[in-house]
Design a protein that fits this description.
The protein is α+β, with helices and mostly antiparallel strands. It has twelve helices and 14 strands. Helix 5 packs antiparallel against helix 7 (299-315) and helix 7 (299-315) runs antiparallel to helix 9. The longest helix is centred in the middle third of the chain and has 20 residues, at 218-237. It is globular, with a radius of gyration of 22 Å. It binds adenosine-5'-diphosphate.
């Protein structure tokens, strides 16, 4: 980690690990505007930001096939004008709060086996689903059942590294929730440990953020963030912190729906109330101030990351991203972010309020997962109705027009 000019950082002495913060926004009063940059992606050239001319057609067909939003039958859609003629009716829109599809197997408590994994699974070495910090994730099939799964092969050089992976297994053993990827089996050999997990095929949420042809509306974002929050609420109830929440670690169940699952419990750990847990890892853009400052991490640390993800989904921008890691880290420590960018013009006040209640430097003032689920942006049906009517796109709205 690059050294930081600490003089610019206000050191947060707060060590309260309250998960029931008061809803004060004092700490946010000093927000200063900052020059945001588009989500980092080396392959994303400027011309890629230009909107496709067929996007309106794509949008139409997407609306037609969207299965997870239920229009209330008794309230057919009416134009604004005719509604007002009918008098004051409360228009509501019921978003689908049903969970993601469950894993194709019952939750199981996995113990690591030292048998030859190839006797039981065919691992498709050519089909790489993703490259992680410590190894590769491949598609695989269980020979006895034909079940398609994902195999995360983690290189381990010594017993200590094996223990680290075993803690990931222990965490996953405790998590039985449809928004959290499920563990199926684990195998160890001399040089690696392989986690066999539920497979999901919809790709990383990150890809939806950077894909200008993927028309994400604010209402889509509500659905996505709701599920991430539900997964987090469950984890926090189980006293487990994820500590590495970012769009790369949120997988879409399919390309057609807005159902997601949280993955990568490699940095997750059990929260112990009196333990001073300090961590010094993670991707700079998503790190919470307390992580950078080597202070106690707690449930609100994940809530900060939720705020960053929400900001990114709505705008396509990374709220703290600077020209280099040093600048990024300083922006986080100064809690320097804003809604000044044009990308936020059409975004609802409720969405902005939601982010504002998460991106707070002092962790005890951030909303908890349960409070977040009750926030109007995620729970107010009449707001969801308005968003549905408006169909406002997220980040792509302000992309440059297509070249003629
Ligand atoms: P690491 O802990 O090494 O960062 P991850 O668990 O984040 O590894 O996995 C790396 C990438 O592999 C993910 O970003 C994702 O694209 C892909 N991946 C991981 N798990 C699955 C899965 N269960 N199904 C499909 N793809 C997966």
């Amino acid at each position: 980690m690059p050294s930081l000019p600490m003089s610019t950082c206000e050191i947060n002495q707060d060590s309260k690990d309250s998960t029931d913060p008061q809803e004060s926004l004092e700490d946010h009063a000093e927000l200063i505007g900052s020059a945001k940059r588009r989500v980092k992606d080396e392959t994303l050239e400027k011309e890629d930001l230009k909107k496709s001319r067929v996007e309106d057609e794509l949008e139409k067909s997407k609306e037609e096939t969207k299965p997870e939003i239920n229009e209330p039958k008794e309230e057919p859609e009416k134009p604004e004008e005719s509604r007002s003629e009918d008098g004051p009716t409360t228009e509501e829109y019921i978003i689908d709060c049903s969970p993601s599809p469950s894993a194709p197997f019952e939750h199981r408590v996995v113990t690591t086996k030292s048998h030859q994994i190839t006797a039981y699974y065919t691992i498709n070495r050519d089909e790489i689903l993703g490259g992680g910090r410590f190894g590769m994730v491949h598609k695989c099939v269980e020979k006895s059942s034909g079940l398609t799964l994902a195999a995360k092969i983690i290189k381990t050089r010594n017993q200590k590294e094996k223990e680290v992976v075993k803690s990931e297994i222990e965490v996953m053993n405790q998590l039985n929730h449809a928004n959290l990827i499920q563990l199926y089996a684990a195998y160890e050999s001399r040089s690696d440990v392989t986690l066999i997990m539920e497979y999901v095929e919809g790709g990383e949420l990150f890809d939806r953020i950077i894909d200008e042809n993927y028309k994400l509306t604010e209402l889509d974002t509500v659905l996505l963030i709701r599920q991430i929050t539900e997964g987090l609420q469950y984890m926090h109830k189980m006293y487990i912190l994820h500590l590495d929440l970012k769009p790369e670690n949120i997988l879409c169940v399919s390309r057609e729906t807005n159902k997601i699952k949280i993955i990568d419990f490699g940095l997750a750990r059990r929260y112990k109330p009196r333990e001073k847990l300090r961590v010094n890892f993670g991707t700079p853009e998503f790190l919470a101030p307390e992580v950078i400052n080597y202070e106690f991490v707690s449930f609100p640390t994940d809530m900060w990351s939720l705020g960053v993800i929400t900001y990114m989904l709505l705008s396509g921008l990374s709220p703290f991203l600077g020209d280099d890691d040093n600048e990024t880290l300083n922006n986080i420590l100064e809690c320097k972010w804003s809604f000044e960018e044009a990308e936020f013009t059409d975004i609802s006040e409720e969405a902005k309020d939601f982010i504002t209640r998460l991106l707070i430097k002092s962790k005890s003032w951030r909303m908890s997962a349960s409070q977040s689920l009750k926030h109007p942006w995620l729970s107010d049906r009449s707001l969801h109705y308005r968003l549905h009517q408006k169909k406002n796109k997220c980040h792509s709205t302000h992309a440059p027009p297509p070249e003629s």
